Amino acid sequence: MSKKLHNRQQPGRRRLLRLVIVVSASVILASVLLRIAAPHLISSSLVRSAIGSAVSGWTGHDVTINGPPVISFWPEPRVTLTDVSVHKREGNSDQLLAEIDALSASFGFYSAIRGQPQFSEFRFVRPRIRIERNRDGKLDWSNEGRLTAAVRDAHRNGAGMQEIDPSLDAAVDSVQVVDGEVTLVDETSGQEFVAQSLQADIDWPRLSSAFDAKASLSFEGRPVTLQIQTDSPLMLIGGDVADVVLGIDVKGLTGRFQGKANLMKGRLGDGSLELNAADVPAFAAFSGLRLAGSEDWQTAALKTNLVMAVNELRFEDLSFQVNGTSGDGFLALTHPDQARPTLSGTLALDRLDLAGLLRGLELDVDDKAEARLPGFVDWIDFDVTVSARIATLAPFELTGLGASLIGKGDSLKLVIGDAEFLGGSLSARFSRPDGAVGQDADLSLSLEGIDIEHLMEGLALDGTMPAGQASVDLVARLPNGGPNGGLRQSVETMSGTLRFRADDGVLRNFDAEGLRAMAKGHAYFQLSAAGDEDFSFSHFDLTARFDHGSAEIEKAQISGSSETLTLSGIAPFTRQALALRGELTPTDEGGANADSPLSFFIGGVWSDPVISPVPNAPSPSIAPRLPANPAP
After folding, report:
1. Which end of the chain is least crowded, N or C, by CB within 10 Å?
2. Backbone dihedral region of 576: left (phi > 0), alpha (psi from -120 to 50 degrees) or beta?
3. What is the pLDDT of residue 590?
4. What residues in the chain have per-residue pLDDT under 50?
5. H or E stretch including 152?
6. Is 91 left (phi over 0), alpha (psi -120 to 50) or beta?
7. In this predicted structure, what is the pLDDT of residue 34?
8. d(CA 614, CA 599)
9. Each residue of 467-502: pLDDT tens digit?
10. 459: DSSP letter
11. What local confidence, expressed as pLDDT, does residue 357 receive?
């Protein structure tokens, strides 16, 4: 039974298959025949006129086509026009807005037969477009065309989405730009910005739909890749705030922003921002943007949420990395009218390069750059608190650093709290007033309970140096070095006072016993010749005044167990030289075994000075009395 049913179904299937084949062949044959007959059915002049009218209708300007149209029908109908120009005519004036070497578009076959061709998939080859940006930030290019009408009508509906009158909606489809050039003339600044070698792919199905564009171009000889996506393209073109996704890719840097933006005014609003500089030196060379303090940066990255308020842009949930070292915090950038912008907030870093920070504040402490680079103090005022788990100022490290930075104009205040340093603590304050002539900076530095020997080693000082736990207080005034004077230059000419205190330490390579022995038979000798024993002390107290590279030691008393060393004189520290008078005095001068006081001069360099003992003055002799009345 089932076999008979199967046999009856076989002829039905065969008939259906033959019908499908016949219909498909007929469609294909009809399509081929229509394309063969197309040149006779479709007027090239009609298509040429229609596409010119379409461009004119979109822009609202006159379109001139000087080249003959070229129409192809395979694999789809497509028209190509050459030597196309767009003109803006007002009265007797005629302004050239665009020149296009070749303009091509696909068109509907059947709509063209009906005499009303519909175009899509536009392709512009070597277009040269000129756009003017007026003082209000608006682009004066499209006149009274369809695009302008749609932009003017665009508004937000109840759901906050872009909406236009359905009668103004129209299909756009895709647009491709090949080797284009766009000149933007800014009326406010009077400058012209030219983008060359423009390659763009635009996907915009309808005026009312979303917009997606990718472009690569050359700006001032630098390659740039851009991307923009938005659900409200008409509002964005009209100068309103719209939700966008923006991307940029240049040499060494990529960036992405997703949020609200106003491209007419060049402003970003609320949204997320990501920047990733995989090669900071390459980006600096590409952009010409070099900032003091960033000379050692190789990689950098930033993520933050932007929040826009009145005259303020906040960087919330800020996280960043520099050379793999991370940090986070919060910043706010305010820009009052007719005033410099001000940056405020807090930053917490895992590791901080203090030398780089000081260079950014225009306080040069090293030779990272051959010429002075601009610092961020040149552009903005600031009030920022910075903390760091580790802060480096080669070759030293500080831990648990907290600092406050306040700058306004040329004035600067830098305050460092009690950071851990060399087993003790460090605090400092630097204050620089406005850069008027004659205005000096003030510096105070306090070191408490530090390992003084490690400090001397870090400063590359050798010779006779103290070792042990010590405290140092420095108060100085630094002359205004001007725009080309760094902190190091100011240190060489600074003036102020120094106080040094230490308990229970040693004075390295000062052999008091050997010095006394050498002094008995030598008029002068190098200190190293006296021996390498250390001088132990229970208390070390030194005060000095310094000015223009030279220190005057007012008091230096180093108390040992059996004798005391006192020093006074001059120490030209910029040349690491000495010109001192020293004296070794027994603690118990009346003791039976006490040595007599020994005075000596100390001269030469710090590393190994020359000792010149001062001979003891002979006891004055009693002269004989003359007779009152000498004999004649």
Report:
1. C
2. left
3. 55
4. 5, 30, 33-34, 36-41, 436-437, 482-483, 619-632
5. helix 146-153
6. left
7. 46
8. 5
9. 999 999 999 998 865 445 556 666 678 899 999 999
10. T
11. 87
**CA–CA dist 231, 245 (Å, integer):** 10
With 0-12 / 13-18 / 19 or more C-beta atoms within 10 angstroms meaning exposed / middle / buried, residue 490 is buried
Which two tokens mark 579? 């010109």
Residue 112, pLDDT score: 55
Angle of helix 146-153 versus helix 44-59 axis, rounded to 10: 30
Question: What is the rounded distance in angstroms from the CA atom of residue 445 to the CA atom of residue 398?
Answer: 14
Residue 380 falls in which region: left (phi positive, over 0), alpha (psi -120 to 50) or beta? beta
| pLDDT tens digits, 21-75 | 655 555 555 455 445 444 434 555 666 777 778 788 877 788 888 888 887 766 7
Pick the closest to residue 147 from 62, 201, 208, 86 (CA basis): 208
On whether the CB atoms of residues 351 and 391 are closer than 8 A, the answer is yes
Give the per-residue pLDDT at 301.
Answer: 96
Structure tokens at 392: 């480096």
Q: How far is 106 from 104, CA to CA, in rounded Å?
A: 7
DSSP-assigned states of every residue in 84-139: EEEEEEETTEEEEEEEEEEEEEEE-HHHHHTT---EEEEEEEEEEEEEEE-TTS-E
Report the predicted TM-score, pTM, of the whole model to 2 decimal places.
0.79
The two structure tokens encoding residue 353: 């390069």
Q: How far apart are CA 363 and CA 490, in angstroms?
A: 10
The helix/strand/coil state of 252 is coil
For residue 55, what is the DSSP state? H
- Residue 347 sits at the vertex; the CA angle it makes with 388 and 483, to the nearest 5 degrees, is 90
Cβ distance 328 to 320 under 8 Å? yes
In the structure encoding, which two tokens stand for residue 25, read together? 């062949």
| Residues 213 and 228: beta-carbon distance below 8 Å | yes
- Note the residue count of the chain: 632
For 290, the 3-state DSSP assignment is coil
| Backbone torsions φ then ψ of 113, nearest 5 degrees | -65, -35
- 362 by DSSP, 3-state: which? coil
Residue bearing tokens 């000081």: 358
